[in-house]
Structures are given as structure tokens and as C-alpha cells.
Amino acid sequence: MKLYCLSGHPTLPCNVLKFKSTTIMLDCGLDITSALHFLPLPLVHSQRLSKLPGWVSKDGMINLEKELKECAGRVFVDSLPEFCLPEKELLDLSTVDVILISNYHCMMALPYITEHTGFTGTVYATEPTLQIGRLLMEEFVNFMERVPKAQSATCWKSKEIQRLLPGPLKDAQEVWAWKRCYSMQEVNSALSKVQLVGYSQKVELFGAVQVTPLSSGYSLGSSNWIIQSHYEKVSYVSGSSLLTTHPQPMDQSSLKNSDVLILTGLTQIPTANPDGMLGEFCSNLAMTIRAGGNVLVPCHSSGVIYDLLECLYQFMDSANLGTAPFYFISPVANSSLEFSQIFAEWLCQNKQSKVYLPEPPFPHAELVQTNKLKHYPSIHGDFSSEFRQPCVVFTGHPSLRFGDVVHFMELWGKSSLNTIIFTEPDFAYLDALAPYQPLAMKCVYCPIDTRLNFHQVSKLLKEVQPLHVVCPEQYTQPPPSQSHRSDLMLELQPPPMAYRRCSVLGLPFRRRYERIQILPELAKSLVPSEIKPGVSVATVSAVLHSKDNKHVLQPVPKPAPAPPTKKRKRVQEEPPERLGPKPLLSGAVPLEPFLATLHKQNKWCSMLPQMRVRVSCKEIYGTKCSN
Amino acid sequence: MDNDCIALLPGVLTFLADPKQSLPDDTCLEKLLDWLVSIVKEDDDRNLLDKQPSLLEFLSGMFDSKTADPIILSFALKLTGLLAATEKGFGRLDERGVVRGAFACEGGAVKVQWDEASVRCGWLLGLRGMLQHGQAMLFISESGLTRLILKLQCDRSLFVAAAANQLLAHILNFRHQPITQQTAKENGHDQPITDQAAEENGHGQPIMEQSAEKNGEDQPITGQTAEENEDDRPITEQTGHTVPECSAVTMEIVGHIEEALASHEHFRVLQALRLLALSLPGCGAPLLGSVWRAALHPLETLLEAGGTNNISLPVMEVLQAASTTELFDQSEARVEELMRATLRVDDPKIAIQCASAITRLQNCSETLKKMAVGIVLQPLEFITGSPLQSQQLDSETGDAEHFNHWQPVLSEQLSQKSMCISLLSLSLSSVAELSLSNSLFVDAPAQSVTGAVLQLLKVCLGQSPSPMAYNKSFLHLIGCSRVQRCGLDALISLSSCEGSQGLRKEVLDVLLQYLENPDSDPTVLQKALQALLKWICVQSPDSSDQTHFLAHNLFPALMKRVCDVHWEVRDSTLEFITQLTVNSKDCVALSSALWGSGIVSLLLACLDDSEGYVRASAVSALGQAVTAAHHQGELNANSPDSLTGDVLTRLVAILSDDTEGFPRRAVIKAFIGWQSAPRPLACLQHSLPGVLTLGIDDFDWEVKVHTLELAETLMDQTLSGCPTLAEALEKLHEHGTFCVLFKGLLDCDRPVAQKACQLLLKLREVMEVKGHEEEEGSTTGVDTPTFHLQSQQWGEDLLRKCKEGGVVVVGESDSSGEGRPEGDWPRGEVSLREVMSRLDLEGMREALTQSSDHAMASPRSLMEDILVAARQGDDNAVDCY
Fold first, then answer.
1. Helix axes B588-596, B599-606, angle to 10 degrees
2. In sequence order, what are the beta bridge partners of A64?
3. What InterPro entries would the database entry show (chain A) (predicted)?
4. A98, A126 in Cβ contact below 8 A?
5. How far apart are CA B667 and CA B691, in angstroms?
């Protein structure tokens, strides 16, 4: 059993598990942090950004004026942003049989894999994951396509040049593998390969393994996966949450007794408690609005935004926000708000019960109804005529490099009355703000990450007790800025196996058993002899029939009857002579040494009531299991 | 004595004696006993039993009955004790065999029902009540009850065991109580007779301490006179009985204590220790020595036995009790040595608890106290890694080796979360207490301790005190609210310690971090704000770094907290702003920073908060801000006048429209504050009549009382500020003050009427005095404002109530002697003087002092309830039949 690690990002994983002749890709995350090296894509022409000086090395030897621009003391690439894909060279991705998706944030690289690697398999995901994932991809493509930029920058990627560039561009990794955003056609094609599954639904893969999604409590339709055969169980824990937010609660008990637990997607900000951050978000928002300023919330169009709106809905009265409107601007804003209301079965019990009243599960419906929350596909069109200040704007993209947020940064950045509140934990906020400096608006960092923290995961692991844990290397040491916090890492016995991008791990357990069925007629013919009380042995002569990873012992076919003769006829009338078993191909099994060997290795061959023989494949057949 | 109640008593006792009847509720017997205690107290001639023969009948009947209800029997036992608390009563009861029936345990109801814990408890409390004179002691001695009482000390019911301990302590303390004239008059009041009292006392407070507290000094509890007891003769001598008979009882108890302390039964040892702790403070000289001699060796043995750490704390309680007696000064009593031994136990947790107790002692030696302080500081020292005491101390006390031996155990204990938190909390609470007496920081300087507390508070925020210092226990402390609260409490106390001020800047930085930390619990934030206030006030708020801190660090953080999601935080922050403004009243810099920070506009916004408490706090904060600014002339200089006008308008709007009482109360208080300032706001005068009217017409009685307080302020200022009484009265009349007072007087809420009555009496007195002074120089009397009663609501109410003969009583005819019939008020204009003179304000004051439930809570009502229950029981019986 092997694990190929194609992504080094702990919360945007992409791993491939080879298990019992199947090749399973676990998630397909796209690392968008590379976009921070690029200049923002303004929706409206920006005088400031268009007049940035090009970069020339100090000695004047390297002139990349067209590709690189200097802005606020840093150098940015002036082209459409590019993204860091999962590693494609570690193994042949056309051999991947299935892709299991945990949540809509972890599928953003799907078109790169399904459309450009020869992938012919199936993608499994829950319905909300598919639908909201589609929205996020649609938004992503839209953000890129509506600001076309023909220019592409490649010269700076040359190793010789890159090492001469100023940081942080100099330290960017794998730049040659960075790719531009996919097209909508590719998205549609990729998503057509998705097969929907429900929580706890068992999906058989080639008869060899069974995969089951479990609720992970992180987002609408988010799942962890169980991958198991008759005698082995691998759990894949991706973004999970134990907090009471909108999704169904996490199913923990089904993770018990795993041989291996692959743990990814823990909180990115372990020191920030989501409740405290929500409080910070609300109080900063209220403080700005009361002082007559505007609030900009760069966020994804689905996920935490539902919780933020719910929190504001409850806080609005006491916060005395007056008539300040909330705007949600995204090409998929409407769909996102509507979709969240229709996936009732994927919501927490509290919200599910509202549906029967009937009431919309999320209170943002009321905000929309009362015109408190208004949503627009873009800053163009209706929004520009209805826009009132002071207001709160929720818009993407949280990297501040593309999307409508770029316009608001240009518009509001110069006033100290305004505030930008970062709630998404995926981007370092100072890096995100870098091309907008100097900035007068207040910046507040309130990352709200509801995923498991180290304390919760330690409790979870104590509860479910996996034999081995595999996790990204970042989880095995405290964060560099807080090296004294040994509580911000996984301390387990045995220690977890750590992986990084391009690691190939041989998972530390050997498959020892395989289930083989004996057909009843063969079983009937067996003559067990008791060698000690409760233990019987019998020699079996049979044909092993393997198909679809199912193994059956069938009786040896009888030889075709000889043509009848007179002489033989007489013989046939006599009772049939009981023949002993034919000598085995491998020679006679010396019973005593055989039993002694079994005894020594504590492997017993016993006759089970269901006529199943549970033996070590290797001992009996002298052949290795499939992996 | 309430004759009506006395008349009902026989019926009630007959009902209680009837085993077929059931009580209306569980508490009525307690209430009845309380009433009987007051009756006995008032029974000066001590012949209650003669006046109420039903009592004797009831008691003798109860103790002879075979089917008595255990609860009633317990009541009867306590009642017997109460009635036999005087020698006369004892004699009367003894004649009828009631005393023997109740307490001798020879047969009858008590013996039959002995298995009931309530009966045993009643028996002990009854004995305890009776044991106020020599005859009672003799009875106990002659009846051989001591053994039984000692046996009950380990009863399976903890209430019984506690009551037995109290009785034993009472016996030991009995002969040494000084005697005065008061005698049994006090008895009924002071003795704990009820189960509840037993329960309360069982929780640790020595009975003698309680009675001493109540009486103010060691009060007499026996029936003898001071003359009889002038010398220190044992009581048995005084009553004609021999000393050995009485001392036999005490010696038996002392012997029992000695034996029990050496016992292997844990509960027995524990009870003996509790008895010692209860009895020692009340023991007189000869017996005290005997008791201590008997206890000393076993106590030493107990402390020497290493494995019995769980006994150390009860031993420490005994030593604390001993420290209040003369034993503490006697070297042969070795109290301090024993205390020292408690600090040497193997378990640091126990030692720290004992040390914490020692640090609270008033009169122990400096060495012992230093040692205790050192131990108390150990957890703090261990966690922060900073030595707090000089090494010299360990060598002085010779305990260095012992402390070294401790370290691994302490480390182990601190590695467990619950233990770590509890030990640190104990350590920090002790620091808070110790910092009140600076002298204790001789060996642990306040600055080091403050530094250590700061380090700990940083650890609680997830920071490492230093890159090198890392301790596994840190993980238990990150975000731990309990330790944070204790640490902040310690910091509050340390602010007043000399030497700690050097760390002021660091303290303010850490406190600011707490204020800014999004994960701070609201209770922690509240403490952090209290600590901030203390530490800000340590230095003159005018200093430049202080002003910089306030303007650039504190106010931005406060502004965010004023908008917090949790209303508790918003409320605490507003309270803090109020207090900060009050404390920096004379600081121009602060006032300027406040007005310039934009916080005032946030305060105005908080007047619309959804939470009433927050609106109330915002009102108070604005009130103080306006007062402070006005005080410094700030309002005229830097801020627009319209702001004050705006604040006034908003506050009046709250008073008239707010649906909750708290903000409305706060508004009136703000007006009181403004009005009572040395230079009242000029613009206030226009608003006052409206505020007074709105306030007195409010639904909330507290708003009305505060309105009367505002009227009082106005009245005081006007009466003292105006040259003539007539002018002052006219001015008050213009403000509507008299309407407010009369409306208040007629209010249905008692505190409002009481306050108004008090103010009218005060006004009448001033009018009389001032009027008399002014009349001396003039030929005409002082003019007072006039009212047309029929055209005012309060006037109509007054007239109506007069007709109804309600609370308002029309006084005698006026001084002119025209003799109008009572209640016959003149039509048309009536002068203030006449209204005042016709009201029986004294009578009203008298009537208003009685609580509104005085009729419902009366003993008469109680007994009627019992009798009604009896009748209902009969009716039900008939129905069933």
C-alpha cells in the first residue's frame, strides 16, 4: 500500500492511494497562493496600476520591464495569475481509477487532472460539493475571463533569472508548473465525470475495496472517506469541524478501528478561536459603520459567508448598525444564497427542522427579503446605480488579485474611515495587501477557520484509535512563529508519518489476509480431522477462481467420462471406490511440520461454520498478495 | 406578647399532638419555634409555663405517645430545651417528668423513634438549648448522657454528628462563660435550636464565635446573675453541686478526644479534630490546658505519620483555632511547631493549603509567616521560573533540603491540569491577600511577585515568558479563565504595593493585550478593566506617557470593546469609561483625549443598544463625561455646545420612552450628578421640571425614588442658596418640586412614599426654622406657594384618600384654631403650609416603616394556617368517609 503525495499544502491536499490493485486520488486541491505574486486585475482601468514601473535588475543586466512591475517596494508579475497544480510527474495519473472529493474547496484542480492527464475514471462527490464546487469554479473562470490579458510572462521563470529576482518571487517554488486558469468548457467536462454519493453510501470499486463518504461537519456536503476491504481499513480525514455551524455534524464513530488514518485539512490558524474571531469581525464592523466608514470583506462566495451573515443577522440590532446595507457581489452570489437554502438534508439538525415549518434554514433569506442584503453579479449594472454608503461589501476574491474586490480596494483604500476585514484564512493578509500599499484604510485580520484544531484532533484520535496516522509534515512541529507551543502539533505514539509534496510513503502495514469463499459442494467433500479440541484441519484440493477481486475455491472438475465398454459396465455397477486426494503439485504436505509451523506463527487453519478458510495467503499458496 | 396568638396556641398544640393530622408545610414548625423563642425572650417573669399550661400538656403527651410523628417529636424536644433553658422552667418541666421523658432516653416516644435522624438531632439540639445552667449539666451528668452524646458524634447522619459535636463543644465551653444580668433573656435568641442552625454551624464556624459575634462580646448564656458569677468558680459550685460531678463530664469528653485522635478510624479522628476546632476558642484557662495536653501528643503523631496527609488540613483548622487562644503564646503548647510540621508534609498541595491558612493568621511569628509565604509562592515560582524569595530563607528555616525533595512532586502535580489550575489559583489568591500588607514582601519583593504574575498572565495568552523558559504546564494555562481571573485579581491588589510601580508600563501592556485578545472571556475582560483602572490611577493621569497610552492604545481598544458582540463586555467597558472619567476628573489631558478620540460619539450610539444594561451604562458614562468636561470648561472650549444639548435631549427621550427601568434610573442619576456638581450645568434648569415630572410618573419605583433624590438635591441647593424662604419656595414650586413630593407621598410603592414623607418632614422642619427666623424681623408670615387641590391629580388623590380614611391621615385643625372637621379641606387655593400642617406626616412615616407583608408573615397568620389545615383535614376525612 502506497501513498503518493502530490500537494504540499496541508489544507488543499491531493494524494493518491494505491490499495489492493486500485488507484484512488484523495482530493484535488488547487494552491492559489501563487496568485499573490501577480499584480491585481482591476475591473475598471486603474491609473495607478497601469503606470507602475517595470523591473530592471540593479546592474541593468536583466530587463523584464514587460513581465515584472515594481509596486510598493515589491515586484509582481504582470500577467494573468497562474496557479500551482498538484504534482503530475510522480506517477502516471491516467492510471487513477477514482477521485474522492471531500469538499468544494478541495476540487478546484479537478479540470487540470481530468482533462489533461488521460484520466478515464470516475469522480465521487456529494451533491452540495458538486454544485457549490461548480459555482466556485464558474466564479473563478469568470473572474479571469472578464479581464482578458493577452500578455503572458514566462521569462522570469527561468531558473537563472528567478534566483536573481527580489523576494518573495525569488523563493517561489515549482514556477514552471504553474498554470493559468482553465476554461468553462473544461469545467463542464470535468464535472460530467462526477458521480454523486450520499453520506454512508457504500460504493464498491472493482470488488476490491469499498469507499464510503462520512459527514465531516466542515461545509455543506463535506465528507471524510472510509476506504476498506474485508480486512483493512483506511480513513481519509480532510477538512472537518466539530463546531456547531450550519453543516451536518461530523461522523466520528465510523472512523474507529482504522489501520491507517490520513489526516489533512486542520485549521490553518490554530491560535485563532472562530468564536472570538466572529466577535472581532462584528465589533470591528460595527465600529466602522458607526463612524461612517465602509467595510470590505474579501471572501469566498460560499462557506463561512453563510455563518457571517447569520452572525450579523443576530448582531444587527444590538450593534445599532442603522440602515447601512450589506452587498454581496459575485457572479454566483444569487446561486450561492439560493443553493444554501435547498440542501436541507445536508444541514445541521437545527436548520433541517426549520424546513418543516416551513422556513428558510438560513436567515440570510430574511435579510434579502427586507433588502438589508442585496446581491449583484458584478459592480457593473444595477449595483452602480443602487450603491449607498456607508455599507458592508462581501466580495471575492480573498487573494485580492482578481474579482470585484480589486475595485473596492482601489476605491476605499485611501480613507482611514474604511476597514477591510479578512475572514478567509487561506492567504497571508499582509501579502494580499502588498500591491495596495500605502493603504490608509484600517486592516483587521479575523481569520475564521472552523476546521479541527490540534486539541480537537488529539481527542478525536484518542477516540478512534487508528494504528497509524499519516499527515502533512507541517502538523508534526509547532508553527515557526510559536516554537514553544508544543500544543500546536500532533504528538502521537507511534509518531505520525509525515509527508510533503512529492513524498511516496509505503504505508506501514502489510495486508495479511484475503477472503476466499469455498463453494458448498466443495465444502461438503472436505473431511476435517480434529487435531486438537476446537481445531480441525482438512486438505483441500480445489481450483482457485479469481474474478473482480473475488476469490472462490471450486471443486476440481471431474474428468470427462470414458466411452462406455462392456467390460467397464460391470465395474460401474459396483459401489464406487473412495479415492484419496491426488498428490498436490507442490508435493505432499507433511502434516506434523505444517501444523508446527502454523502453531509457531500463530496462524491456524480452522473450519468455520460458513465454510470459509481464513489462512495466510502466503503460507498456503506461496504467492504474494496483490500489493 | 401577642395575646391573640397566645389564645390560638392551645389549638395549635392540640393539632400538633394529634398523630392523624398532617402539617400544612415543612417550614411551619420552624416558624412556630422562632416565634416561641421570641415569646420566651419577652417572658420577663419566666412563668410562661404557668400562663400556658397547654405547653406542658403537649410536651408530656408527646413524650408518652407511642405514635408520635418524628418531626413533631423533634420539635417537642427542641421546645423542651427552649423552655428548660431557665432554672425555673427546668424545675417546672422536671416536676412533670418532661425533662426525663425528653432527654433521659429511658423509654417513651423518644426511645421508640430513636432510629429517626430528626429525633436524634432534635434531642441533641434540645439538650444544647437546655444546657444553660448548672441543673441541666447535673442532669446530663447524673443521667450518664455523655456516653450517648459521644456515640452520636460518629452518627451515620452527618447532621446528627455535627449537632453532637456542637453540643460537646458547648459542654466544654459551658463552665467558662462569663455571666451578666442579661442571662436567659439572651438565650432564646442566641442558641441554635433549629436543624438549619445546626447545619450552618456544621460547616465550620465555631458556635462560640457566632455567639460572640452576635453579642459583641462573650455574652452570658446562663440563668445566673453577674454577682453570682463574679469569681471564676465552676458553675457546679455555684449551684451547690460538687465540682467533680461536672468535671467528670468534661474529663470524659477530653479522654474521648485523646482516644479518638489515636484511633485508626478516619471519621472518628476527623470528628475529634472538628470538636477541638469548635471548642478551643471558647475554652477557659484550666480546661484549655487539659484539652490541649490531651490532644498535643496525638496531634504530633498524626502529623508525623507521612501517609495521613488528608488529615493535615483538619489539623490545621485545629491549630488555627488554637492560635486564637492563649495557647499560641505558650511555648510548651508548641502550636507554631505543629503548624511548621503541617508545612513539611510530603504533599505540596496540602502544604500550600496549610501555608495559605498560616499567611492569614494575625499574630504568628515572622519566621513561620515567611516560610508559609515561600511555600504559597512555590507554584508561581515553579511555573514562571523566576525565584521570588531569597535563598537565605530556606537556610534560615532549615527547610532547603525538604523543598528540594518537594520539587519533583510539585512538578508532577503541576503537570496535571486540574491540580495545576487549583494550585496556581490558591497561590495567586494568597498573593492578592498578602499584597494588602506590604511587610510580607520583605523576602519576596513586590516587584518580583508582580513580574511573576505578569509572566503567568502572558503564559495564559499563549506567549512564552522567555525563549528559554518552557514548561509543560503552560499548555494547561493557555486560555484558562480561572487562572487569568486570579492573576488579574492579584495584579489589582499588587497595584497598591510599594515597589511594584516600577513595572507599571509592562503591566499596562499585558492588560492591553488582554483587552485586545478576541478570546478573552467577558469575566476576564471585566477583571482586566478593573486592573487597568487601578494601574492607571497609580500614576497621575496628567503625565505625558499616560496620556499617550490612553489616547493611542487604550481608547482604540475600548472603542472596539464598546461594539463587542457580548453585551457584558460592552457594559463592563462603559462602566470602565465611567470610572476612568470619575477618577481623572481633574485631568485636562484625559478629558481632551476623551473628546478627541471619537469615543463620545460611540457612547451616544450606545444609547440605542438593544440591551437595557448597556444603555444604562452608556447614560452613566455620558453623564460623567459631560460632568468632567464641564468641570474643566471643556464643553465650551473644544466641543460644540450642541453636544451637551444633544446628550440632554437623548437622555430625556430615554426617560420618557425607554421600555426598561435601568436606563431610566441611570438618566435620573445622571441628572442628580449634574445637579449636585459644584457648578451645575446652566442648560439643565430648563430640563429639570420635565425630568421631575417624567420621573415621578414612571412605572419603576426606583426611578421614582431617584427622582425624589433629585428633588432633594434641588431642594437643598435652593433652600440654602436663595436669600429668603419665600423666594426659595417659589423657585421650587416653579420646578414642580412640591408636586413631585406630594405625588411621591401618595404613591403605592412604599419606598417612594417613605422617601417623599422623609423629604416633606425635612421641608417642614426647614420651613419652621427658617420661617421663624424670618418672621422675627417681619410683621407678616412667610408666603408659601398655593395649590388648587381640585385641579391637580395629586390633589384629587389626596382628597379622595382623606375621605376614604386611607393612609393619609388628616391632622388636627390648623394653628388658627378654626376647628374645621377632619378631612374637610377648603375649596379653592390652599397654601403649602396648610397642606403640610394638615397631613399627619409622622403618622404616615410610622405606618410606612412596617413592611407590606407584615400581616402575612405574622405568627397569628402562621397559626391560623395550621388551624385551617386542621379543619381541612377534618373535612377531607368526612369526604372520604
1. 70
2. A55
3. Beta_Casp (IPR022712), Integrator_9su (IPR027074), Metallo-B-lactamas (IPR001279), RibonucZ/Hydroxyglut_hydro (IPR036866)
4. no
5. 9
Do residue B610 and residue A487 have CB atoms under 8 angstroms apart? no
Instruction: Report the alpha-carbon distance of residue B410 to residue B382 in Å, rounded.
Output: 8
Collect all residues of chain B within an 8 Å Cβ-Cβ radius of residue A278. 565
* Location of C-alpha cell 408520635: B68
Q: Among positive and negative, which fits the CA dihedral B483, B487, B493, B497?
A: positive
- Residue pair A227/A24 in contact (Cβ under 8 Å)? The answer is yes
**Gap between the Cα atoms of B881 and B868, Å rounded:** 20
* Of the partner residues A318, A446, A487, the one whose CB lies closest to the CB of residue B611: A318
Cβ of B524 under 8 Å from any chain A Cβ? Answer: no
Fill in the amino acid letter for B134: G
Write the DSSP symbol of residue B360.
T
Task: Report, as an integer, the average pLDDT of B586-598.
Answer: 75
The answer to whether the peptide bond before residue A528 is cis (omega within 30 degrees of 0) is no
Give bridge partners of residue A523 from the DSSP assignment. none
- Which chain A residues are closer than 8 Å to B659 by Cβ? none
Is B518 in contact with A485 (Cβ distance < 8 A)?
no
Q: What residues of A are in the B interface, CB distance below 8 Å? A: 271-273, 275-280, 282-284, 286-287, 290-291, 311, 315, 317-320, 446, 482, 484-487
Q: Within an 8 Å CB–CB cutoff, is residue B561 touching chain A?
A: yes
Q: B-chain residues within 8 Å CB-CB of A280? A: 518, 560
pLDDT at position B680 is 74
CB B592, CB B634: distance < 8 Å: yes
Q: What is the pLDDT of residue B879?
A: 47
Q: Which residue has the cell 484512488?
A: A24
| Coarse DSSP helix, strand, coil percentages of chain A, rounded to the nearest 5 percent | 30, 20, 50
- What is the value of ipTM here, to two decimals? 0.76
Tell me which chain A residue has its CA closest to the CA of residue B461: A271
Q: Which three cell numbers stand for residue B829?
A: 387655593
Provide, as residue numbers in chain A, all residues whose Cβ is less than 8 Å from the Cβ of B519: 273, 275-276
Of all residues in chain A, the one with the smallest CA distance to B522 is: A276
Query: Which residue in the block uniquely carries the three cell numbers 521569462?
Result: A155
Residue B610 has its nearest CB partner, among A283, A287, A318, at: A318
Identify the bridge partners of residue A4 per DSSP, sorted by sequence position: A16, A504
Q: pLDDT tens-digit profile of A140-183?
A: 999 999 887 767 888 898 888 888 888 889 898 889 889 999 99
Q: Do A282 and B559 touch (CB under 8 A)?
A: no
Question: B599-606 and B641-657 are packed helices; what angle lies between their axes, rounded to 10 degrees?
Answer: 20
> How would you classify the pairing of strands A419-422 and A295-298?
parallel
- B267, B153 contact by CB (below 8 A): no
Rounded to the nearest angstrom, the gap between the alpha carbon of residue B424 and the centroid of all alpha carbons in its chain is 27
Query: Radius of gyration over alpha carbons of chain A, in Å?
Result: 31
* Of residues B470, B520, B560, nearest to A287 (C-beta): B560
State yes or no: pLDDT of B184 exceeds 80. Answer: no
**Do B212 and B218 touch, CB atoms closer than 8 A?**
yes
For A152, phi then psi, to 5°, come to: -120, 145
In A386-532 the beta strands, taken as DSSP E runs, fall at 392-395, 419-422, 442-445, 468-472, 497-499, 504-506, 516-518, 529-532
pLDDT tens readout for residues B230-243: 334 343 333 434 44
- Determine the Cα–Cα distance for residues A164 and A169; give it in Å rounded to an integer: 10
Distance CA A276, CA B565 (A): 10
Averaging pLDDT over each range in A358-372, B578-592, B840-854, which range is the top one? A358-372
Contacts of A291 in chain B (CB under 8 A): 598, 601-602
Which residue in B464, B517, B611 is closest to A484 by CB distance?
B464
Q: What residue of B is the nearest CA neighbor of A488?
A: B475
d(CA A349, CA A347): 6
Q: For residue B59, what is the enclosing H or E element?
A: helix B53-64
